[in-house]
Amino acid sequence: MHTNHQSYSLFISDLHLCDARPAVTSAFIRFLQSEAKNAENLFILGDLFEYWAGDDDIDNPHHQSVIQALKALSDQGTKTFFIHGNRDFLISTKFSTNAGITLLADPTMLELYDKKVLLSHGDDLCTDDVAYQAFREQVRNPEWQNQFLEQSLASRKAQIKALRMRSEDEKSGKPLMIMDINQTALEKLIINYDYPPLFIHGHTHRPKVHNLNINDHECQRIVLGDWYDQGSCLRLDKDGFQSIAVNIQS
Ligand code: LP5
Ligand code: MN
Predict the structure, then answer these.
(1) How far is the CA of 122 from the centre of ligand 2 (A)?
(2) pLDDT tens-place string over residues 185-208
(3) What's the CA angle centered on 232, arms 112 and 197, to 5 degrees?
């Protein structure tokens, strides 16, 4: 039916879309209407938004423009998937239904072009960041989330603003190593998933391909880049992967 869809998949993360950076949102919408249109799958590996306060914020005009563009993409035949980031883990079924995306667990293992591919946001592997992991455990708890979501949208946004300030403040005092993936946690994950040859994640904003050898198994860990000065996207097909830069006009 959709014969224009070629056999390749695209992966993006860490766009941090928000009202304050309209050029990035425009670039993303153009990307959905161009590069992504002919893809069979688009995987968004978290932190699509600067923050997500709850699905009741869906009517926000900025969010609507993103949701409409995602919906148009999936309606024309590109399957779209989303893994929660640490900024937008409150995205739920109202968003996914409206945007036409499928929510995936973190991590998720898939088979693409005869290759096992493991996908994650990546924050779960930053185990040296003890303060962040304690925070993460608290806010990923469904009971905590229910209580948080019972509060008014305005109150939630005020708390998120305070949290963002605290997070930036604490980050400035954390050594860079602490905010990267822990090697032992990484190896444990790869072993648990029986050595997928590809592991793709975001979060650290340190785009790179790491060639790993774990117990004599080759594994490539691909770290996606963010969308600040330019957008970045990974393309995967039967011949392998390549990195694509996305222009952001300011
Ligand atoms: O996002 P990034 O990359 O800049 O930093 C992350 C970690 N910080 C965060 C916080 C988010 O940026 C804030 C936005 C989240 C919105 C979610 C909405 C719902 C939750 C609302 C809760 C009020 O994820 C940062 C890491 C960094 O990645 C690198 O991995 O270091 O972690 C921190 O800085 C966290 C601090 O170390 C600990 C903060 C403890 C705050 C405790 C307050 C209790 C909150 C609950 C009560 C309301
Ligand atoms: Mn993140």
Answers:
(1) 7
(2) 999 999 999 999 999 999 999 999
(3) 30
